[in-house]
Amino acid sequence: MKRLTAKLNGLTVLKWLIYLFFFVFLLVPLFSILLVSFTGQPVNIFGSFTSQKIFDSTIKKLSNISVEAYTSIFSEGNSYFAALMNSLKLGTGVAVLVTVIVLPIAYAFARTKMPFKSFFAALCTIPLIMPTFISSHAFVLMFGKTGWVTQLYHSFGGEGVLFDVQSMLGIVLVQVFFFFPYALWPMVAAFKICDVTLEEASQNLGAKSWYTFLRVTLPLAVPGIVSSMLLIFTVSFSDFGTPIILAPKELNLIVVESYREIAGFFNWAGSAVLTVIMLLVAAFFFWLQRLVIKGREYGTISGKPTKQKLNDHKGTIAGLTIYTFLVMLVPILALGSIFLSSIATTWGHHALPDGYTMSHYKTIFSTSGKNIWNSMVLAAGTLVLSVVISTFVSYFVVRRGSGGLDFVSSIPLIVPGIALGIALIQTFNTAPIHLTGTALLLIIAYTIRRMPYMIRSTMSSMMAIRKDIEEAAVSLGASSLIAAITVIGPLMLPGIAAGAILVFVTVIKETSISILLAPTEWAPMSLAVFQNLLRGEYYTACAMAILIIVIVIILQALAKKITKDQLY
Asked: The domain 98-254+329-356: what is its CATH number?
């Protein structure tokens, strides 16, 4: 008994409560949606343990398990198969294009004396602060039939449009110009860690700069480049905001199809099958990315530190500077288009609005104040839950070597938002745990979706804290739990603050979870913008979008300031 009591200390109980949270709200929903894909009917797992009637019904459904839903996908003319192929083509195309476009920029940042690097780095945040469905609407404002770029094109004698923005090409372009920062910084890091002595040796042997880049520098950066490409594929494949705005009816994409099946037709079987396929594809490419990072190491070991010699060739620097600015100009113009639309009286007949007004901002504060309040409350609730769970997950992983928690907490990285939403709806749609349509389930979904980012932030802070500090507190009589809270906790504040604001920012922008799970009385700002776009209330939608972007910018600046103040 004493041995059992000794094991059941505060930290142990807390650890198992965290395991229970992941089991109830992540593992069971994913397993439940897997069962539905085989039975074709909703399965109430929790109800099966509390009601004999539900248990008998579940057994009956499980007795009719079939793989017909999966085999039928490969039948001729199946829309699901077309959606899968189109999504794979989209992800592959975006990944390749982003890699090709970003490669010169990453090299410029890492290996040249390109001016205005800080300015360009700041511009790179613009694509990250704009939700993709807002970016998609910005492209409509620019390249649509009445877009201002189209108007300029007509003024120079052009006819029609430059390209059909509501097409596969339009989706690809939006994702390329708004996902490239995800690949940029890993590729910059890949170029920076390359061993410069190998490049110097190549040049000393008479190789030209371009030959050294192609045969030495580029191969050394291959692991980082391939890893970035796989990451972009996963982000593109899982993106919901862009296709839901720009995909025409005849273009089937898996995220849109799964949303339509559950939201439009209440087809549990179809949505479950598509959800499982999304999970499998995302998991495979996530595993492939990890394999590339782990399995291909191109670094060299040297006891002598080397200083990188940055490329200062004037022609190269001028060309890379202009190229970098042109790539980053597209998100700037998109943001400017959203802002102009938010203050326009009417816009569509000329390149610029016909007039300007601030009435749209007055409208959103008078009619959508509830949405703004909802976003703040939901983000705050998510923040509290994320901070508590993520901090202790980091502690157990780093200090106690809990590989199980590390694995479970990483699962959300491979779960697309639309897939998680469908899984949660299916699991908590009936008694005994009926949470669908409540703010609580929305907060839990936000927490699970964004927690990995918080965990990575707190884990890096945890690794920097010496273990003997905690041991000193324990030796003075404090329990392990008290030592973790009162000693380790305050030292982790920089990582907690940075991760917390990151969670807050991403929750404010979250779209797919909000669209599926948010009840009317708890609709956040992102959902209000999306609904306004669908209703054709474009000006108020843009005003609300600008408000979201301003909040995100302020919070990111605050995170940067807090982190610097704490660390330096």
From this structure: 1.10.3720.10
